[in-house]
Amino acid sequence: QVQLVESGGGLVQAGGSLRLSCAASGRTIRSYAMGWFRQAPGKEREFVVFISWSGASTYYADSVKGRFTVSRDNAKNTVYLQMNSLKPEDTAVYYCAAAPTKYIATMTYEYDYWGRGTQVTVSS
Question: Residue 23: beta bridge partners?
Answer without folding.
Answer: 5, 78
